[in-house]
Amino acid sequence: MASIRREIRIERPAQQVWDLLGDPTTIHTWFPGIVESVVEGSVRTIKLASGIPLPEDILVNDPIARRFQYAISGALFKFHRGTIDVIALDDDECMVVYSTDAEPNVMALVIGGATGSALREIKRQFESGQHDHDVVSAISKGDL
User: Fold this and answer.
1) For the segment 59-105, what is each residue's pLDDT rounded down to a tens digit?
2) What is the CA radius of gyration of the chain?
3) Which of 15, 58, 68, 103 could lock onto 79 through a cystine, CB 3.0 to 4.6 A?
């Protein structure tokens, strides 16, 4: 099994970043190539830009540890686990760590490349002011 870890520093409070990343319904707003996300119970189904639906089992959504973890069963994977951690560095800066464990090994490289792009997009959105508190609240309520 292969593991890939990507991380990025974001000049925003950890809780503000977690409010977006800890909401499993918002992944399509920050992960390139994902156009839709529907959550039913502990299953999130994402729809890829190609139109392919991909069900993911939500394993952990811990607002105290600010950790979100999910698994993909089947498809091209023997095994897949994705983990997102939002870590406070100080009051106004955090680090987001996105880890991927996958088998076959090559799939970790594919997903790892995509998670690196997703982290850069998250940073761009937050540091451009796109996700001030009002925007995050609207996303959470489904108004955007």
Assistant:
1) 999 999 999 999 997 778 899 999 999 999 999 999 999 999 999 99
2) 14
3) 103
